């Protein structure tokens, strides 16, 4: 009898071993690797022989030249991507940055240590996991600190949509389109003096609940929908909540060859800042209410000519940033001519306007209303002379003209109503 049981026992052992291997192999790693991406923006610019700590109104939609103040901004994104036998995948992302907003020309002794602004910082660190069989292959979850769902104007460079902070979320596909919900929190910026006036142990923590649905095909393009419900801790009932929403339309360049992104956004209360622009800077009371419109993109004119453009408007429906009737708008174009594969010529022209009710932010007279013109010529030496060809080294001359000296002073022009900026902007992303 024993010899008859041996094959049966062997078969059972084989089956059990196979089942055990199968159970273990589901989590076996089949792909595991690192990716390194990054960005660098080094702007050597001079105004009458010295560096200056101003962007000449660019963050406020007044100018669109190549005169951001960061002299040595460096950013690295490191991602570890892993895939498993059962289809589950994960990403671990770390984004570090140094020098964003620093305007000083540092030297070798390490004088950076004397300046506590724009130091090395970890901007993002999060994990995203997807491919769970019980959630569906199109579903992923994430947790950590990140920049979430960002969008920025082409020539202004301003991020008008994002959620920047610490949180978690889930993303999936509904009817073939990307849908998700996320909760992101950020502690509010301190007062300009750096003094926290809250009672000990209290923080004015901001929170945004994000709902989004992206990629809806219609009208020759696609639509993205965003809804953000915001709140802030340790505020009274007149300034502890907000609502923001936006609709974004993506398509070609208004029927021509190229691309555009057009958006309308509404924000109130804590969400007054373009409705969907959430981070530590958010906040506002019941009087804060704004509308935001933007449209930007690149037109492919010919084999040698391309043109970037941007039209942006932001205005108070009641108050915005504490100012009644505040409105800002900019119109900007940047034609680009490809001389050869490695040289591109650029010309930028912009007109920016700002106004508000007399007395806003203590302004009166000529400083109540500003009109700013910015004209720039540049030549980009690059490895690829496409509009977005990078890396590039771009010498430029930028001329800025305000309608009066008071308006010029607001954007950092020290004397008179105009300014010439000469610089070399070096940029790379990878």
Primary descriptors:
430 residues, mainly beta, Maltoporin, Chain A, 2 helices, 21 strands, 7% helix, 55% strand, transport
Number of helices: 2
CATH T-level topology of the domain at 153-321: Maltoporin, Chain A
Q: How large is the radius of gyration?
A: 26 Å
Q: Helical proportion?
A: under 10%
Strand content: over 45%
H/E series, N to C? HEEEEEEEEEEEEEEEEEEEEHE
End-to-end Cα distance: 71 Å
Strand count, sense and barrel status of the largest sheet are: 18 strands, antiparallel, barrel
Structural class: mainly beta
Q: Which term fits the overall shape?
A: globular
In CATH terms, what is the architecture of the domain at 153-321?
Beta Barrel
Oligomeric form: single chain
The CATH class label of the domain at 153-321 is: Mainly Beta
Low-confidence stretches: 15-22
Report the CATH superfamily of the domain at 153-321.
Porin, LamB type
């Amino acid at each position: 009898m024993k010899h008859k049981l041996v094959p049966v026992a062997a078969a059972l052992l084989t089956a059990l071993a196979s089942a055990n291997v199968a159970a273990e192999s589901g989590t076996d790693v089949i792909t595991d690797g690192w990716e390194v991406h990054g960005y660098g923006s080094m702007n050597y610019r001079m105004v009458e022989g010295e560096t200056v700590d101003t962007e000449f109104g660019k963050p406020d939609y007044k100018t669109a030249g190549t005169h951001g103040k960061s002299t040595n901004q460096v950013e690295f994104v490191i991602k570890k991507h892993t895939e498993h036998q059962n289809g589950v995948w994960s990403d671990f992302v770390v984004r570090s940055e140094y020098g964003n907003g620093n305007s000083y020309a540092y030297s070798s002794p390490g004088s950076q240590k004397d300046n506590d602004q724009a130091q090395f910082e970890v901007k993002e660190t999060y994990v995203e996991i997807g491919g769970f069989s019980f959630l569906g292959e199109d579903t992923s979850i994430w947790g950590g600190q990140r920049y979430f769902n960002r969008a920025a104007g082409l020539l202004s460079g301003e991020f008008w949509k994002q959620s920047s902070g610490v949180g978690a979320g889930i993303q999936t596909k509904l009817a073939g389109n990307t849908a998700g919900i996320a909760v992101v929190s950020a502690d509010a910026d301190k007062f300009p003096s750096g003094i926290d006036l809250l009672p000990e142990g209290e923080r004015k923590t901001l929170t945004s609940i994000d709902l989004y649905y992206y990629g809806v095909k219609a009208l020759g393009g696609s639509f993205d929908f965003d809804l953000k419900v915001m709140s802030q801790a340790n505020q009274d009932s007149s300034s502890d909540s907000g609502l923001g929403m936006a609709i974004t339309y993506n398509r070609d360049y208004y029927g021509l060859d190229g691309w555009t992104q057009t958006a309308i956004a509404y924000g109130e209360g804590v969400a007054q800042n373009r409705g969907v622009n959430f981070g530590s800077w958010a906040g506002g009371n019941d009087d804060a209410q704004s509308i935001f419109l933007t449209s930007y993109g690149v037109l492919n004119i010919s084999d040698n000519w391309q043109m970037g453009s941007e039209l942006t408007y932001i205005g108070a429906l009641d108050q915005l940033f504490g100012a009644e009737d505040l409105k800002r708008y900019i119109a900007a174009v940047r034609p680009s001519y490809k001389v050869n594969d490695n040289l591109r010529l650029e010309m930028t022209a912009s007109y920016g306007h700002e106004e508000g009710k007399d007395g806003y932010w203590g302004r009166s007279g000529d400083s109540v209303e500003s009109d700013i013109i910015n004209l720039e010529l540049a030549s980009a030496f690059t490895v690829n002379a496409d509009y977005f060809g990078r890396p590039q080294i771009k010498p430029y001359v930028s001329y800025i003209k305000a309608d009066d000296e008071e308006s010029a002073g607001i954007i950092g022009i020290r004397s008179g109503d105009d300014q010439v900026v000469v610089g070399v902007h070096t940029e790379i992303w990878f």
